[in-house]
Amino acid sequence: MAKKALITGVTGQDGGHLAHLLHEKGYEVFGIIRGQRNPKREVFEAEFPFVQLIEADLLDTSSMVRAVQLSLPDEVYNLAAVSHVGYSFMNPQLTAQVTGQGVINILEAIRLSGAEKSVRFYQASTSEMFGGLAYNRPEKGYDESSIFHPRSPYGVAKLYGYWSVVNYRESYNMFAVNGILFNHEGPRRGVEFVTRKISNAVARIKLGAQKDLHLGNLDAKRDWGYAGDYVEGMWRMLQQDTPSDYVLATGETHSIRDFLDLAFNEIGVSDWSSYVVLDKAFERPAEVDLLLGNPAKAEKELGWKRKVDFPALVKMMVEHDLSIEGAKL
Predict the structure, then answer these.
(1) To 10 degrees, the CA torsion angle through 152, 155, 161, 166?
(2) Which residues contact 105 (CB under 8 A, 6 or more apart)?
């Protein structure tokens, strides 16, 4: 009998990659979608006809109980969140409710359904929980034992979710894990995120549809990987004999300037300075200057390792945006 998986946040970047992966592995895939007239529904159903959508809301525990009872999942992947760091500063309360309290709601839905002993649960944690401050920055990168110091409402909410998972694992003996994923990008990334914002703008500049690109801090460094690689790590975490938390990362950092260099090189521009405008509107109240992950545990215990390197990731994203933006003209 095929395994069943329930995915929250199925219409997002990671949700799409994960749905494809699980379908290829023979799973029966269910996805949570919020609202009767969700504008994403029609496009999603066209690309993912094999995903059975269930209307529910992470903030409504009763609807999540119903979703668990309808799908009877072997695995639940909680990818839903208010996930944009900048947006979380503008809407901290909503971020706390969805990204933090929402984790408790789905854990409770599993428990109240009587499935806490049969369901394996994955929580999408984040490198933003570490904060990137000099005092807690390990030389070889943050790992599963590193000190947390979140620097945004998003990071704070994710940390609440992280400890909720640990608590339910220890209190109810649930197979519940946190995947502490460092930045992972790709063509499915929303254009509100800086990597996709850059690749999309570069494509539009090449096609004559845009003149410049407004950005904030160009010196911030991130550990960037490909989202398609990372969802395989999520799946591997739930195939282990015992639950544990894992960092997924590349083990190397690159700055926004590095991303700009590679992206503009894809369209034959070596000096992008005349196209990029520094805009204080995109600076954050508390900036995370550097995030570097140490994936040694995941590589050893899960047999996981990233496949797509940084230059290939940037190339993939620019080529994708050149294709879709060119089709609009």
Answers:
(1) -130
(2) 58, 59, 60, 61, 64
Secondary structure (3-state) at 289: coil
Residue 285: predicted pLDDT: 84
In the chain, what percentage of residues exceed pLDDT 90?
A: 92
Q: CB 112: neighbour CB atoms within 10 A? A: 15
Domains, the chain, in order of start with CATH, read: 4-181 (3.40.50.720), 190-222+253-283+308-328 (3.90.25.10)
Of the candidates 128, 232, 266, 299, the residue annotated as catalytic is 128
Count CA atoms within 13 Å of residue 199 on its CB side: 26
Nearest to 272 by CA among 315, 212, 209, 197: 212
- Active site (annotated) includes residue 126: yes
| Catalytic residue flag (residue 192) | no
203-209: average pLDDT: 97
Q: 92: burial class by Cβ within 10 Å (0-12, 13-18, 19+)?
A: middle
* Unique residue bearing structure tokens 């508390």: 286
Contact 17, 228 (CB under 8 A): yes
Rounded Cα distance, 146 and 163, in Å: 14
| Sign of the alpha-carbon torsion through 159, 163, 166, 172 | negative
pTM for the model: 0.95
From the list 126, 195, 250, 253, the catalytic residue is: 126
- Tell whether the torsion through CA atoms of 202, 206, 210 and 214 is positive or negative: positive
Which candidate in 122, 142, 154, 230 is catalytic?
154
Closest CA to 102 of 63, 51, 47: 63
CA distance 278 to 217: 8
Identify whether 162 is a catalytic site residue: no
